[in-house]
Amino acid sequence: MSAVWVYAVTDRDAPLDVPGVRDEPVRAVRHGTLTAAVSSVPLDEFGREPLHRNLSDLAWLEPVARAHHAVVTRVAERGPVVPLRLASVYRDDAGVAALLAERADDLTTALGRVTGCTEWGVKAYAPPAPPPAEVATEGSPGARYLAQRRAERTARERVRHSAVDLADRVDRTLRPLATAYRRHDDRQAWPAESAAPVLTASYLVADDRRAAFTDAVAGLAATDRVDLTGPWPPYSFAGLDET
Amino acid sequence: MTTSLQATGGDLYGAGSQREPANLGDILERVLDKGLVIAGDIRVNLLDIELLTIKLRLVVASLETAREVGIDWWVRDPWLRGTEDTERLEASDHKQLAAENERLRRRIGELTARQPDDAHAGDDGSDDR
Fold first, then answer.
1. CATH fold of A117-237, please?
2. What's the pLDDT score for residue A17?
3. Which residues from chain B sit within 8 angstroms of residue A56, using beta carbons?
4. pLDDT at site B41
5. Where does the record place the region Disordered (chain B) (predicted)?
6. Which residue among B10, B46, B61 sits closest to A77, beta carbon to beta carbon?
7. What is the reported pLDDT for A194?
């Protein structure tokens, strides 16, 4: 017995010449102007219980995630795409067609939003903290200790400020070049000593601004560690209820 | 409706523009955490997306760390060894705490050694009470 894995929705009748999850052939389920790229998956592996278990197994997850991404990317190469979250499994094609019918307006709007755009991932990292300076070498041990602590605190604050400045500068530079953006990082949670990025964001960039965008990132990366990934299908901009 | 399709800009995601094959961590970050979740007519359904997202955060966090130090993280299963990864993540914190602890012990030792003098001075002061 099998179920139906959904990769993405598009408004193009794209050729689906790419193997899906578990190398199953990808086929189209259509309703009106919308097409869902789907393939069959066995229920004993992709039913609720086994799926839940399997998703915790990175060795199982990796090929599935790569296959999902490959199909989404293939669809995206041919036109606008709304990628579905991994492991969107339906009972049968009729259920997928019903979904397309039910959410036709939302899906069409979402597709319009990402038409002619790709997603770019940007992560900015704070410069590593300099080693704490040995400050006072004279005075009482207590005074030396306090001076030392004060110097450390100041250094930490300076690192923190420069990190926040970097995040702001990156975002200010890139946002005007993007059609839409999402910040994924939580600034409040950012600890001063952590190796975590100070900015994690996705930018939806129109194809005719791609060069300007990547140039801008290269400019930022000349002085700071700013990592760029992409182009991605618009995973971060697939929401139906966003403007 | 069968509108045949011209490939629009076949190079959009092609080898020409991709610097390197996408990193698994970057892919997981997107296919697990982003993408459209439709709560509509999902019959067979899925999983608890929330739980999956929490697991993902652990994976991605350990990926970041692993990338920093160049570990082949995928040879281990971070979801099954969450505690170990957490320890690894916090190892640098522990090291810093240990160093500070050591410094404070030294400090206390020095101050204690000076204590008699200081105490004497204190006694002198207390005579004025």
1. Alpha-Beta Plaits (3.30.70)
2. 86
3. 55, 79-80
4. 43
5. 108-129
6. B10
7. 60
Subunit contact A52:B34, Cβ cutoff 8 A? no
Within 8 A of B27 by CB-CB distance, chain A residues are 65-66, 69
Alpha helices (H) in chain A, listed in sequence order: 43-46, 48-55, 58-78, 93-102, 104-114, 141-174, 210-221
Please report the pLDDT score of residue A80 as a whole number.
Answer: 95
CA distance A101 to chain B (A): 11
User: From the CA atom positions of chain A, what is the Rg in Å?
Assistant: 24
Q: Which residues of B touch A240 (CB under 8 A)?
A: 36
Selected residue with higher pLDDT from A29 and B6? A29
* Of A65, A91, A118, Cβ closest to residue B27: A65
Cα separation, B47 vs A47, whole angstroms:
9
Q: What is the mean pLDDT of chain A?
A: 87
ipTM for the whole complex: 0.82
> Which two three-digit tokens encode residue A11?
């408004």
In total, chain A counts a number of residues equal to: 243
Chain centre to alpha carbon of residue A160: 25
Confidence of residue A118 (pLDDT cuts 50, 70, 90): very high
Measured CA angle at B53 (ends B66, B69), to 5 deg: 5
User: Which of A119, A214, A147, A206 is closest to A174 using CA atoms?
Assistant: A214
Contacting residues of B for A66, CB less than 8 Å apart: 24, 27
